[in-house]
Every structure is written in C-alpha cells, then in structure tokens.
Amino acid sequence: FPAAFAYNIPVDAGPNLIFITLPNVFNNLPGGRIWGTLFFVFMSFAALSTVIAVFENIIACCNQLIERHGGEVPNDLEALTSLAGVGRKTANVVRGNIFHEPSVVVDTHVKRISKKLGITKSDDPVKAEFELMKALPKDKWILWNIHIIRFGREICKAPNPKCEMCFMSDICPDYKARTKEIKKSTGTQKR
Predict the structure, then answer these.
(1) Annotated catalytic sites, by residue?
(2) Is residue 142 exposed (0-12), middle (13-18) or buried (19+ Cβ within 10 Å)?
(3) Of 21, 39, 90, 135, which is the most exposed, with the fewest CB atoms less than 10 Å away?
(4) C-alpha 151, offset from chain centre
C-alpha cells in the first residue's frame, strides 16, 4: 500500500524519516499498519509546512477506517473521499494502484500535458478526469497517469519543456504552435 504513494513524496521530505524511522514507530502502535500506511498517503500530498494538519488528518482518517470499515481500506470512490484528508486524486491513486480498478488520476502534470496534447480542454481536474476517461482505453488509465507524471517531471516541464528531446513533438499541437511562433518572430517562416 505505501509503495503506491512513494512516487509522489516530495524530494525534500527526508527519505530516512519517511521510509525507515516512522514506519517502525507506527508498526509498534495499535493498528500500526494502518497508521503507517496513512502516513505515506498524506506525506505524498502534503508540504512539510502543513505537517500538523497532515497528522490531524492521519489520526482522523485512521479512526474513520477503524470505525467505519473495520480497519480495512475501502475501494470505492465515495467511501475513500469521505475519509479525512482524502480527495479525489488520492482516492483514484488508491483505487488504481492498490485495488487495480481502472482510475484516472489528474495531477498538475496529467492535466497540463493532456491539455497541451489536445486530449482534454478543461482546467478543472474533475472535468479533465472525465474527458480522459472518454478519450483513453480503460485498461490504460492508470498507466497514463504514471507515464505522464514522469514525462511531465523529466521532459515536458511546465516552465521549460525539453521539446527537442520529446518523442511526441511531431503530434503535439503546443510544440507546433510554439515553433510556428518562433519562425514567425525570426522571419524564417515560409511565405
């Protein structure tokens, strides 16, 4: 379960604290596996400046899991999003990566790149999620998330995309518009 969130833990979050110390602490508490698991969930989406709020959500969420679900993590979207601190994105990560249910996770990279490629039109993550669900084969939904997030972090970076390294530049409307604009401004465009 924690491994599903490891890809999204902030780099500066202190890997030793997250991967070594805290899991051992949590494992020694009653319901420790739940506590440790939820710690990973919340650390993956929280800035360190909000640690107090994160821990309050972890405690509330763990209590809700025990009280409402007998200590088991539910697999349906409504039940997951009813838990403290769990939004649609986190719920879809859990559903797709843990329960292997087709899910589209719309984070900043998925939203930005899907729009840039012309697959989605909306800036609203929920609307973009449904647009992607219509456009992509269901068995590829979770893979789209994983690949596009990595692609967005390494190649198609928001401020300075590495278009010259991109394997999709020939089909990318944004790249075509950008190069057309460069040619126009430098006077190299065909007349």
Answers:
(1) 89, 107
(2) buried
(3) 21
(4) 13
Spatial separation of the C-alpha atoms in residues 37 and 86, rounded to whole Å: 13
Q: CA 86 to CA 59: how far, in whole Å? A: 12
Q: How confident is the model at residue 42 (pLDDT cuts 50, 70, 90)?
A: low
Cα-Cα-Cα-Cα dihedral of 64, 30, 39, 106, to 10°? -40
> Alpha-carbon distance 179 to 26, whole Å?
53
pLDDT per position as a tens digit, 87-100: 999 899 999 988 99
- Say if residue 5's pLDDT is above 50: no
Contact 86, 80 (CB under 8 A): yes
The 8-class DSSP code of residue 50 comes to G
